[in-house]
Amino acid sequence: MAEAKRQAAERRGRKGERLAALYLRAKGYRILDRRVRTPMGEVDLIAKRSGVVAFVEVKHRKTLDLAADSVTQRSWQRIDRASEYWMARHPALATCGWRYDIVAIAPWQLPRHIRDAWRPGLA
């Protein structure tokens, strides 16, 4: 039973990430990478627009507010480490700025894109 719940959550997460990628593309972003796993952690989406690379955490919950509020400080720290690892391996993007975003997903609602949702060193 626990395995079935985990698999359902995984499917829901992948679906949310696909929807978030489509939404960001519609807003003019280019998706550079998806489901990035590094030794430091993982990042759901990496997107670029206007010389800025966005490391995007996608959250799917019952409401957009619950989704947006579900990213913890520990999650951001993991994403920060993974993003530094990823950027170090993509020197062509060294001149780009970068930030941390959230795309919140909830049933029957348009996604909510929260730009610059977190900054390292700020609680």
TrEMBL record:
Pfam family, one: UPF0102
Taxonomic superkingdom: Bacteria
Listed InterPro entries: Restrct_endonuc-II-like, tRNA_endonuc-like_dom_sf, UPF0102_YraN-like
GO MF annotation list: nucleic acid binding
Family listed: Belongs to the UPF0102 family.
Cross-referenced HAMAP family: UPF0102
Protein name from the UniProt record: UPF0102 protein HAD_09045
